[in-house]
Specification:
Number of helices: 21
Helix content: 40-55%
Strand content: 5-15%
Structural class: alpha/beta
Radius of gyration: 27 Å
Shape: globular
């Protein structure tokens, strides 16, 4: 049995070892941060003009309706003072306990100590009171422009979320308890995790969401059988191997977004849309886009259209010996597919027999949650970054999307990873989410200015290849799938764009869940349902109110629609059995290019 002296000696040795590790980690931390490239100030927050406008609106409100502002301030003071007095009275009675009413629920405060411990409960309740006062204060600025007010609300929420007590060691019971249980080891591991993330991302603060060592593209994710049958500087074209003896004559060409990697559609056999489509008896081609470096600075949307869409379509027609194909576009690739359809209409080209859109916007008149990022200060900052780098580095897009869900994608993972020293989960979806792509400078400027800000395609003024393109030119049979809680392509905005399209045959389906889970929703899971309604003359709210709620995935609904537009059955086509021979197995080489390796 160890003596007290021996135990103290062991504790001393552990302490000294941890201190030595901390000193080494501090040096690595400084070194990693020093490698960080400065980004334009506009990308880190709004210009001071926004706060000046907020102050002006506040004083206008004060002059025109002081009673309302005073009422809000008095309510805030009253709640704060009552909260303090209640805590003081409890202590005066010699009771060290939280009040009977622990305050509103918030999933950040799941630890029972937030409700039962007087210190943590006081901190939690006061934080929620403060956050509510800030929200109400902004909502009551009637004299402020609604777009500016939306931006102010967004940035105020970011500040509020950042200062949540859960984000600080002294006011996070989970982290404190873990540190005590591990004799401080969790904090050292957390610092190691922080330094490793900074080193991996050239000094940028990007929280790792998944255990990257658990996955390898082509080995345990993106494993559907197929061959790369064509390659150019923009894309690799993958033809997937048939699993049926016969296939529909009309092939499918699927264009995934180049903001992300295509294998979200083939994470694993159980939820692979790629495998499912092939199993239904279709010849499927999928484009895998290049992950561009700075040499792609002058690549524009027209290059994606010409060397991506049009080239892929022509190659597929040659391989399958057909005149027409069915096209699918996901997210930004769906937006661009609509541009292609307008262009083909202008040229009298009937290559596309039908089009399917997954969460694709064509009308940007309502910028939704992206309003803060589409104003002039942020757009100018984006252009400054592009002019310096030639590309929009993937971490900027990743950071932008993450801040739309900051508690889930930034602060929550940071707490677990850095304060509690936990290893990120081996979660394939989060691994894919962290495997980002850069964007060519010219292309993103065209998308940001022409499509998002000026809404030129919806307005019928978008110029490409000497043609003026309009959403009204999209006249092929189409199906559009939106998702109910999508924070990137809001369902009502997708629906409005579909209404503007010129097709006489069009169908809109609303899936449950969000931008990813609502699309990657295999029938076997029976997890999320979908809504259908053939009357597209209604506004979105009326359409949904009258829609039929269907259990299960929308995939079979889409396949039944697609089957009618896919022709007779023919013998299955094997990749490489045409003049386009195999250039290598799926998932190809472009998908393996890491953005972080190009951004050093």
């Amino acid at each position: 049995m160890a003596t007290n002296t021996e135990v103290a000696g062991e504790n001393r040795e552990r302490l000294e070892a941890n201190l030595a590790r901390v000193e080494e980690l501090q040096q690595r931390l400084v070194s990693a941060i020093s490698r960080r490239k400065p980004t334009p100030q506009a990308l880190n927050g709004p210009e001071s003009e926004l706060y000046a406008k907020a102050a002006q609106a506040y004083w206008q409100e004060w002059m025109t309706n002081p009673a309302k502002l005073l009422e809000n301030q008095v309510q805030y003071w009253g709640k704060t003072l009552t909260h303090f007095v209640d805590a003081q009275q409890t202590l005066a009675r010699g009771q060290l306990k939280a009040p009977e009413n622990p305050g509103p629920e918030d999933r950040r405060f799941k630890n029972p100590l937030w409700d039962s411990h007087p210190y943590f409960n006081f901190v939690k309740q006061q934080y929620l009171i403060n956050a509510e006062a800030i929200r109400e204060g902004i909502d009551d600025l009637d004299e402020m422009d609604e777009k500016e007010k939306r931006r102010l609300r967004y940035f105020a929420q970011q500040i509020t979320d950042m200062f949540a007590p859960t984000n600080f060691l002294a006011t996070n019971p989970d982290a404190l308890m873990k540190a005590v249980e591990t004799e401080g080891e969790s904090l050292v591991r957390g610092l190691e995790n922080l330094v490793a993330d900074l080193e991996a991302n050239n000094g940028e603060m990007l929280v790792r969401l998944a255990d990257e060592s658990a996955f390898s593209v082509g080995e345990n994710i993106a494993t559907a059988k197929g061959e790369v049958v064509y390659r150019n500087r923009m894309m690799e074209l993958i033809q997937y191997s048939p699993t049926t003896d016969q296939v529909h004559e009309t092939p499918i060409v699927l264009f995934p977004p180049w903001i992300n990697k295509f294998y979200i559609l083939d994470l694993k056999p159980q939820n692979s849309l790629i495998r499912w489509v092939v199993d239904q008896g279709y010849t499927l081609f999928v484009v895998s886009w290049i992950n561009p470096d700075s040499t792609y600075r002058d690549i524009g949307l027209e290059d994606y259209v010409d060397e991506g869409y049009l080239t892929a379509m022509n190659v597929v027609k040659e391989i399958c010996d057909v005149d027409r194909i069915n096209a699918v576009g996901y997210c930004i690739a769906g937006t661009t597919l609509s541009l292609v359809l307008s262009l083909l209409k202008k040229r009298g080209d009937k290559t596309v027999k039908s089009a399917t859109f997954f969460t694709a916007l064509v009308d940007f008149s309502d910028q939704g949650e992206f309003t803060p990022f589409l104003q002039e200060d942020f757009a100018a900052g984006i252009e400054e970054e592009i002019d310096q780098e030639g590309i929009l580095p993937s971490f900027i897009m990743a950071r932008t999307f993450s801040f739309l869900r900051s508690n889930d994608l930034i602060y929550g993972p940071a707490i677990r990873h850095y304060m509690m020293g936990e290893t990120p989960p081996a979660f394939d979806l989060l691994y894919w989410n962290g495997d980002g792509a850069n964007l060519p400078g010219k292309m993103f400027k065209q998308y940001l200015r022409g499509l998002c800000q000026r809404n030129e395609f919806a307005n019928g003024t978008f110029e490409m290849f000497g043609e003026t393109l309009s959403v009204k030119d999209v006249d092929v049979p189409l199906m559009s799938i939106a998702t109910e809680t999508d924070h990137i392509a809001a369902a009502r905005d997708v629906y409005r764009g579909v209404q503007m399209m010129g097709s006489r045959s069009k169908q809109f389906v609303l899936g449950e869940s969000g931008h990813i889970a609502g699309i990657v929703n295999p029938p076997s899971k029976k997890k999320y349902g979908h809504y259908t309604n053939d009357d597209l003359s209604l506004d979105f709210d009326a359409w949904k109110a009258a829609a039929e709620k269907n259990e299960g995935s929308w995939w079979p609904v889409w396949e039944a629609w697609l089957k009618k537009r896919s022709g007779k059955k023919v013998p299955a086509r094997t990749p490489g059995d045409s003049p386009y021979k195999s250039l290598g197995e799926a998932p190809g080489t472009y998908v393996a290019i890491k953005a972080r390796d190009q951004n050093h």
